[in-house]
Write a structure and sequence with these properties.
The chain has 140 residues and is α/β, with parallel strands linked by helices. It has four helices and four strands. 27% of the residues lie in helices and 9% in strands.
């Protein structure tokens, strides 16, 4: 599976243009998805130039390297791209509708193949947030 992952607000806290604080388990989860589950992880970020290199150096210092960066595959040339959105099966980004889930939840969703729960059927009363956590509902 190809996973596109944002940097600011997703791997580190959002303090752009500085590198923010590490978000707990982000690096470890991405490494596990690559090494154990054999997914290809693309860094998909607005960072360019020196700011992008800072992010790459930060991740590399933590043992995380990417299949590709802001591109669909490592050898893709900038002039070959028709837009900045990379092709991926899953996008992990703090700007998701509903925000960024905990990295443990992200891993379990990808690992189990259950990336989302269908919206409940019925009236608007049924759309209230459920009180049980994701993992508790998963194993009901």
């Amino acid at each position: 599976m190809i996973i596109a992952c944002d940097f600011d607000g997703t791997i580190v806290t959002h303090e752009y243009p500085r590198i923010g604080k590490p978000i707990p388990f982000a690096i470890q989860t991405l490494k596990k998805l690559q090494e154990e589950d054999h997914h290809q992880v693309i860094l998909w970020t607005v960072r360019e130039g020196a700011l992008l290199q800072e992010a790459l150096d930060y991740c590399k210092s933590k043992g995380l390297e990417f299949y590709a960066v802001n591109s669909n595959y490592p050898e893709e040339k900038e002039e070959e791209r028709t837009n900045r959105k990379v092709v991926a099966d899953i996008y992990i980004d703090d700007r998701n509708l509903g925000g960024l889930p905990d990295w443990g939840v992200i891993y379990n969703m990808i690992h189990t193949g259950h990336p989302f729960e269908p919206a409940p059927q019925g009236n608007m009363e049924d759309l209230r947030p459920q009180k049980k956590g994701f993992l508790a509902r998963l194993f009901d």
